């Protein structure tokens, strides 16, 4: 304001120069763009190729008792949040991405999100009771063989397993639904095509659980992706993902023949 009063004759030129300066500031540095895609490519490669191999090796160590379950669960939490941090760095560096563009925003259909947040926990109660009844009568929870080595056996392990469930729900939805779909669209894919690629990478990342576990992850990924595309927000898929993982990791009862592991 002070500059305009002191030089009214050049106010138009001043406004033009300021607008040009703002455009220059907003123009991304080439190195920033390159680094965003380098990090994105590294993240995709890690999750599609490296993570399944490392995950299978880590899971076998858990099955054999080489790695204590508490340590394995804690490492999973650290890894998930580290990957989410990389995803946020990619968003920060990329000129074509922002937080709203990767789903960190209110849902377009709040009623659906609120309905899921209320109805799904209620629906889980009879399911958990049925699983416990099934195990007490000598049965086994269908599909639990794919992740049986991850099931907690002590109170401390249950808290860590709950941490894994929450971390996976938040971090994996940010990465696979929010970031990967946005990256696909930025590369010229349609949202549906980008979603298909993201679901495929999500399934590959769970191959360490075997083919049955990968197929279950594929079905879950399709459901999470549908919620994301329907609501335009990560809130609903995060809520569902967390509840599904809590049901799998925390509330799935162990077969009666499996005692609690003693960890040092």
Gyration radius, in Å: 23 Å
Number of domains: 1
The number of helical runs is 9
> How would a crystallographer describe the biggest sheet?
none
Distance between the termini: 69 Å
N to C succession of SSEs: HHHHHHHHH
Structural class: mainly alpha
The beta-strand count equals 0
Helical residue percent band: over 70%
Assembly of the depicted chains: single chain
Estimated share of beta-strand residues: under 5%
Please characterize this protein's 3D structure:
With 264 residues, this protein is mostly helical. It has one domain (31-249). Helix content is 72%, strand content 0%. Helix 8 (210-231) runs antiparallel to helix 9. The longest helix has 35 residues, at 30-64. It is globular and about 60 Å long. Residues 1-16 and 21-25 have low confidence and may be disordered.
């Amino acid at each position: 304001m002070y500059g305009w009063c002191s030089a009214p004759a050049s106010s138009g030129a001043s406004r033009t120069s300021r607008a040009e300066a703002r455009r220059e500031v907003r123009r991304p540095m080439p190195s920033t763009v390159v680094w965003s895609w380098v990090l994105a490519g590294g993240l995709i490669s890690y999750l599609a190729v490296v993570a399944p191999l490392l995950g299978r090796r880590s899971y076998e160590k858990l099955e054999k008792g080489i790695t204590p379950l508490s340590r394995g669960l804690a490492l999973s939490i650290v890894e998930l949040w580290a990957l989410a941090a990389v995803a946020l760095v990619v968003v920060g560096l990329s000129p074509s991405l922002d937080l709203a563009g990767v789903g960190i925003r209110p849902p377009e259909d709040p009623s659906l999100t609120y309905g899921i947040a209320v109805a799904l926990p209620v629906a889980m109660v009879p399911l958990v009771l049925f699983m416990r009844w099934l195990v007490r009568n000598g049965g086994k929870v269908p599909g639990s063989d794919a992740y049986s080595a991850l099931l907690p056996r002590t109170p401390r392990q249950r808290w860590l397993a709950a941490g894994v469930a929450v971390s996976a729900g938040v971090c994996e939805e940010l990465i696979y639904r929010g970031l990967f779909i946005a990256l696909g669209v930025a590369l010229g894919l349609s949202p549906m095509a980008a979603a298909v690629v993201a679901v495929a990478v999500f399934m590959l990342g769970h191959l360490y659980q075997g083919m049955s576990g990968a197929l279950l992850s594929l079905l879950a990924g399709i459901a999470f992706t549908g919620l994301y595309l329907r609501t335009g927000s990560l809130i609903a898929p995060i809520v569902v993902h967390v509840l599904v993982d809590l049901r799998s990791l925390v509330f799935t009862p162990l077969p009666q023949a499996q005692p609690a592991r003693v960890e040092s």
